[in-house]
Description:
Layout: E1 2-7, E2 11-13, E3 18-26, E4 29-39, E5 46-52, E6 57-59, E7 67-72, E8 77-82, E9 91-102, E10 108-114, E11 118-123
Parallel strand pairs: 2-11
Antiparallel strand pairs: 1-3, 3-8, 4-5, 4-9, 5-6, 7-8, 9-10, 9-11
Amino acid sequence: QVQLVESGGDLVQAGGSLRLSCAASGSTISVTSMGWYRQAPGKQRELVASITSSGSTNYAHFVKGRFTASRDNANSVMYLQMNNLNDEDTAVYYCNVEGFVLSSGGSWSPFGSWGQGTQITVSS
């Protein structure tokens, strides 16, 4: 079983910065893809950024140039540096991790997990 723990959400003024963290723990895992999503009130959850095991990143158009995703493969931790925040960034942010988990029988099985979500509120 894989657990994800997020941290870093907060109340921040427009133009400010925050850094989110997402740490994966539990069973022996091999992470292939990590991503950040967000869900604002009344809206669907949307992809913000993703990063592969090789470090390739993909960003939603509305955060390009402002947000940067990175990861620490050795410790299965992903980060999202968010700069120049605006009120449209107000949402609950979730991390998502996909990869393979080692079972007690010695075989690798695919998995996908979500973090509990962390609230970011940007005041204008």
